[in-house]
Design goal:
With 472 residues, this protein is of the alpha+beta class. 46% of the residues lie in helices and 14% in strands.
């Protein structure tokens, strides 16, 4: 899917906080037609780190995204791969709870001092900490972490199923990181997908990737690496397979791609009319009214509903959400929503839903679902701004305390210097008097032998004189 700007950043702000990492060195696995590279995997508190044995490449993703990819791989494992072992959700939950209890008793603390980004009010982190492993994805994450934790850095012990999965997963992450196009990989968000599934039965995405796909069936740009995770191939190369059903279409916001997309959809809708098949496309494109694709969509004879959502009223799911704490981002452009349907689809429940109340009911539902992404993005931005403000306040307070301490030290040094110079400039008599007073005030501790001699002299009537002399 696409977003409204080309965000080429690939920062790995992923919620990595705990300094305790469980690592698997990985091992290579061969099949009849390929050899997968070795991948070292490290499970942290909120993220998973992966590093290759070739080129020292490094990628990061959240534990939640890891679980999603594991579930997708389980459903679409290539026949050349051994596949991941089956997971017993209940047993995994019990094992994880026991391990957590043991860690709590041992008193292990967070070793990483970067607590500014690890906010207790972060919803994603809270969900991760409070996970009950009631779903397949969470159980797969916990099972993989348990396996890697038990390897004790012995790569030869890693099950071949995990070796193959980690190599496949690493290839996907590195591919999408290499194209520097996370802005092209954003999606409309789970709320919109749920609304489309409930209203018109849309369960297929024409432009997606394993990292942002909501449904298990989708077209993507790189079938060579996306295939093991459920990709049905390239949208343009597999357009002839689109004959009936309902499809969600959110292409990369590139003029030539959107033109080609329209041509494919128009051809498919004409074929559906000829075969009297119900076919629906729900299209999301930027509000670029001067582009050829916009004009074609507006004038299309298959258009059943159309409206524009202002940029200030909606957002998108970030293309790099798999490695960022903030899942959503606000939209930069207005978004146009077009519903194209064949004649047979108009007569179905999906067609009646789209046209109900002059199309206003469907529009209202979709606008509400699209606004949730912006609400979440604004909430995250506000939270981040508060964190930054609190950080600046603490920094200013620390700088103020440091300045005060330096000023006090300078004043103390100045006073000491003044006393020293005053004593130096005083008269010699004063110095000698002070010295005599100090000498009189001091009384040297008398030794035992000296005490005996003094008493003997006193008994004989001798008194101590100057320079050790005495008189009777």
């Amino acid at each position: 899917d696409s977003d409204d700007d080309d965000d080429d950043s690939d920062d790995d702000d992923d919620g990595v906080r705990d300094g305790k990492t469980r690592r698997s060195k990985g091992s290579s696995i061969g099949s009849s037609n390929e050899s997968l590279i070795r991948v070292a995997v490290g499970f942290r508190a909120h993220s998973v780190e992966m590093r290759s044995s070739r080129g020292n490449h490094f990628v990061v993703m959240s534990r939640r995204a890891y679980g999603k990819m594991a579930a997708m791989y389980t459903r679409s494992t290539p026949h050349t791969d051994p596949g991941l072992p089956k997971v017993d959700v209940q047993n995994v939950a019990e094992a994880v709870q026991k391990r957590k209890a043991g860690n709590d008793d041992s008193g292990d603390d967070d070793e990483d001092g970067s607590g500014d980004d690890n906010n207790s009010d972060d919803e994603d982190d809270a969900d991760e900490r409070n996970a009950t492993f009631a779903d397949e994805e969470s159980a797969l994450v916990a099972a993989a972490a348990n396996v890697v934790d038990g390897l004790n850095d012995r790569a030869s012990n890693e099950p071949t199923g995990y070796v193959a999965f980690h190599a496949r997963l690493f290839a996907v992450l590195l591919r999408y990181k290499a194209i520097h196009g996370y802005g092209f990989q954003a999606s409309v968000g789970p709320e919109v997908f749920n609304a489309l599934r409930a209203s018109v039965g849309a369960e297929f995405e024409c432009f997606a990737s394993p990292l942002n796909a909501f449904h298990g069936r989708y077209h993507s740009a790189f079938p060579d690496v996306d295939g093991p995770f459920g990709s049905c191939g390239d949208f343009f190369k597999n357009s002839k397979s689109i004959r009936r059903g309902c499809y969600q279409v959110n292409p990369p916001f590139v003029g030539s791609v959107m033109d080609a997309m329209y041509d494919v959809m128009h051809t498919a809708l004409d074929a559906a009319d000829a075969s009297q098949s119900p076919l629906t496309f729900v299209v999301f494109v930027p509000g670029w009214t001067d582009t050829p694709a916009w004009g074609k969509l507006q004038k299309c004879e298959h258009l059943r509903n159309h409206f524009v959502v202002a940029a200030t009223d909606h957002g998108y799911c970030d293309g790099a959400a798999h490695q960022r704490k903030n899942t959503y981002r606000t939209s930069v452009y207005d978004t146009g929503v077009f519903v194209l349907q064949s004649k047979r689809a108009v007569e179905t429940n999906a067609g009646k839903t789209v046209s109900a109340e002059g199309g206003k009911k469907f529009e209202k539902s979709l606008r509400a679902s699209m606004s949730t992404a912006r609400t979440a993005a604004v909430r995250a931005e506000t939270r981040q701004a508060l964190v930054e403000k609190e950080r600046e306040v603490k920094k200013a307070e620390k700088a103020k305390r440091t300045a005060e301490m330096r000023e006090k030290r300078s004043e103390a040094k100045a006073k000491k210097r003044e006393r020293f110079e005053g004593d130096k400039d005083g008269s010699d008599d004063d110095d000698e008097a002070d010295g005599k007073k100090a000498k009189r005030g001091e009384r040297k501790k008398e030794s035992r032998a000296a005490k005996v001699r003094r008493k003997r002299r006193e008994a004989a009537g001798w008194t101590k004189g100057r320079n050790g002399g005495g008189k009777k």
